[in-house]
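Let us work through a complete example step by step.
Step 1: write down the sequence.
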Amino acid sequence: MTHLTIGKKAPAFKGIDQNGISRNLKEFLGKKLVLYFYPKDDTPGCTAQACDLRDNYKKLIKNGYSVIGISPDEAKRHLKFIAKYDLPFDLIADTDNKIANAYGVWGEKSMYGRKYMGIFRTTFIIDEKGKITDIIEKVDTKNHSAQILV
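Step 2: predict the structure and record it as tokens.
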């Protein structure tokens, strides 16, 4: 899992969102950020997680959080996922896994005895100064907002 720890500076990132706009960590300085990594758009767990964040988005905003999701999917796929589930936050396409590697959430996984490379579902809570204040590695996809708003 991740090599990062609470209290450390979050790694800088730069990626393209669903609209083709370049996004980076610097634009969130002065704000709290929920940076969540997930494996794939429109799969059961990822959809449950995104919809829970959507359903509680106003609470997250009220508590001062911005939300950004990151997966290896392409921007066009993110655009369809956002439209299908009416997601109010942006998703970054990390097709080369550069951001996932920087955050230590890309690695070897195993399912039904088959090994493959993929994303370890992980959420980083980053404060206004760019420091990590929480790392959620055991994500409850259906109640993820509750894990953030503790």
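Step 3: interpret the result. The beta strands are 14-17, 22-24, 32-37, 65-71, 90-93, 106-111, 114-119, 122-126, 132-136.
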